[in-house]
Specification:
globular; four-stranded antiparallel sheet; 134 residues; alpha+beta; single chain
Length: 134
Amino acid sequence: MSEDEHPVTGLPTSSETYSPGDAVALQVDALKTNDDPFENAGIMTAYNFASPANRRSTGPLDRFIAMVESPQYRPIIDFGEAVQGPVERNENYAEQRVTITGPDGRTTTYEFGLSVQSVGEFRGCWQTDRVGVV
């Protein structure tokens, strides 16, 4: 997939109306049912919310999918429960921790780092710069 084909059509994507917490919630909800309405739709939704800098380091889409399916991020796909922590916001940057409980009962906490885009198609939108295991 080329940059020209971003975002993946038919799936949620960044909007100026979404808060940073909304942006994280939409991604987490999509990843919970990753293959609905089609295979890897949840991962593709996360890709839609990835900032340009994030996509440059993790894309193209097939590479992004492989990364999310790797052992580090695998728990965030088709999980049992998610608890979102408070959004910590400083001007145009925000962080939010999300604790995922898998079907096996194990938990993994991820920290989403987001920023408001200042240029481009998604100017004024919160997009994900990074997701790391805490």
